[in-house]
Design brief:
The protein is of the alpha+beta class and 202 residues long. It has nine helices and three strands, in the order E-E-E-H-H-H-H-H-H-H-H-H.
């Protein structure tokens, strides 16, 4: 496939995951040169995919990002919090350009855009209906995710606080042991939440 000349306009981060998780999507206008004519359309890229690309191409930087992520309290992806913590240390737009060049993503998305522009009115109606049906489930999914995070984070905070009160020597341990301690109760708390869910559904 021929490499396309392209650029981004209005590149920005959005945190509006339909499931309620703290997930970042980078939204932008993708402008692709097609037969010497610019074609402009909406595009997006998940932070998750960009992080995987950084891990593949620059492991040292990914390790730094991973270490930073590990210091952030809370459950879930925590991508918005990660962006805030990293601040200007990562040029996300530059990495998005690298990703698009390496994957020849502009050409792939241009092909998809042309296909979408050629669908029949009937196909368009079906797609809109499917999107509307999915939107009906967004609110309960967000509520479930918020409840999960609220419960798990609260229980985890209390468990760690009480453990440190009982065993203050934990704070004197090395970084590896402290990281292990931070995630020590995850499986037990997830098990508690599952039991709570079963209880509520009985």
């Amino acid at each position: 496939m021929e490499t396309q000349t392209f650029h981004f306009d209005n590149f920005h981060a959005v945190n509006d995951n339909p499931f309620g998780d703290d997930c970042i999507t980078f939204n932008f206008d993708l402008v692709v040169e097609d037969l010497n004519e610019p074609v402009k359309f909406k595009a997006w890229l998940r932070m998750y995919d960009l992080l995987q690309f950084i891990r593949e191409t620059q492991p040292e930087l990914h390790q730094y990002i991973s270490d930073t992520h590990g210091t952030i309290k809370g459950w879930g992806p925590k991508e918005g919090k990660l962006m805030d913590e990293l601040d200007d240390a990562i040029d996300w737009e530059d990495w998005a350009y690298r990703f698009y060049r390496a994957k020849d993503r502009a050409a792939l998305e241009l092909t998809h855009y042309k296909k979408m522009m050629s669908i029949t009115p009937e196909e368009g109606k079906k797609m809109l209906a499917a999107a509307a049906d999915m939107a009906k489930h967004e609110k309960p999914m967000k509520q479930a995710t918020n409840a999960y995070h609220l419960f798990c984070e609260a229980v985890d905070d209390v468990a760690q606080e009480k453990a440190l009160e009982a065993y203050p020597e934990i704070l004197e341990m090395d970084a590896k042991k402290l990281k292990e301690f931070r995630f020590m109760f995850v499986r037990e708390i997830q098990g508690m939440y599952k039991r709570l869910e079963r209880f509520l559904k009985e």
